[in-house]
Design goal:
Helix content is 45%, strand content 20%. A six-stranded antiparallel β-sheet has the order 5-4-3-8-7-6. It has helices spanning 8-21, 29-36, 40-52, 67-78, 81-97, 139-145, 150-156, 172-185, 227-245; strands at residues 56-59, 62-65, 101-107, 110-117, 132-134, 188-191, 198-207, 213-221. The two termini are 31 Å apart. Strand 6 (188-191) and strand 7 (198-207) form a beta hairpin. The radius of gyration is 20 Å and the shape is globular.
């Protein structure tokens, strides 16, 4: 069995960064101490070091993620050929359909948004870069879960699933039936399971060289959809996924 090694200082720094990343406003040191379990003396030393590296910034009596960490994270985009292909393919999709396009990876039982190209008209979204959603309730997550076997999905998800809206699927058995249909059609569709008034269409792209499962989607207000437009958008997303697959 392969040994794993833990560097406490790195783990503590990661705990701090995750706490800041999850927050919508600056986090006070006292709150960070409570969330991370670090002593005040250790916490302040780490905050000072992270601030010097610009991984965090002091703001309004609290701390936020810093520009230095953004620059490091952006290196992921620069070194990922899929991102370049996504920007090109998403641009063409937007020119045709004028709807937002999103790229996400599967992380456990959640999807993480890694890229987004906005359309020329506004739409209320929950897909800021780096944000997460439960995989069972969004089209992207369903497309990604459909890339797994039923056994793998069963191992990851409990029988009772979290309801995000009244329309969210809350039974694993029902989700498995939907995943079977997605595998057959190549398209995942979700209507108001994440946000009221919003429908999403997604297709599985594949597995990156780094081992990440990736899918692409679009989100459309239900008021902008009819049967003809839904068919066009669905075909467009499936075609975009096939195009991006060539970049893996």
């Amino acid at each position: 069995m392969e040994k794993t090694y833990d560097v406490p200082a790195l783990r503590r720094a990661n705990d701090i960064l995750e706490a800041l990343a999850d927050a919508a406003k600056p986090v006070r040191a006292a709150t960070l101490a409570e969330r991370t379990g670090l002593s005040r003396s250790t916490l302040y030393l780490m905050l000072e070091t992270l601030a010097r590296m610009q991984w965090i910034e002091k703001r309004d009596e609290g701390y936020v993620i810093g520009v230095g960490l953004f620059e490091l994270g952006n290196a992921y985009v620069r070194h990922d050929a899929l991102q370049a292909a996504f920007r090109e393919g998403a641009g063409a999709f937007i020119n045709t359909h004028n709807e937002v396009v999103q790229l996400a990876v599967l992380d456990g039982v959640q999807v993480v948004y890694v890229a987004r190209e906005d359309a020329h008209r506004p739409v209320r979204l929950v897909s800021d870069l780096g944000s997460r959603l439960p995989a069972h309730c969004c089209a992207l997550g369903k497309a990604l879960l459909a890339g797994l076997s039923d056994g793998a999905v069963t191992e990851r998800l409990p029988e009772r699933l979290e309801a995000v809206t009244p329309r969210t699927i809350t039974r694993r058995a029902a989700l498995l039936r939907e995943l079977a249909a997605i595998r057959a059609s190549g398209l995942a569709v979700e209507r108001e399971e994440v946000a009221e008034g919003l429908a999403c269409f997604a297709a599985y792209v594949g597995v990156t060289p780094a081992g990440k499962r990736v899918a692409v989607s679009t989100s459309v207000p239900v008021g902008r959809l009819d049967a003809r437009r839904e068919k066009q958008i669905s075909m467009g997303i499936v075609q975009l996924a096939a195009q991006l697959r060539q970049a893996l």
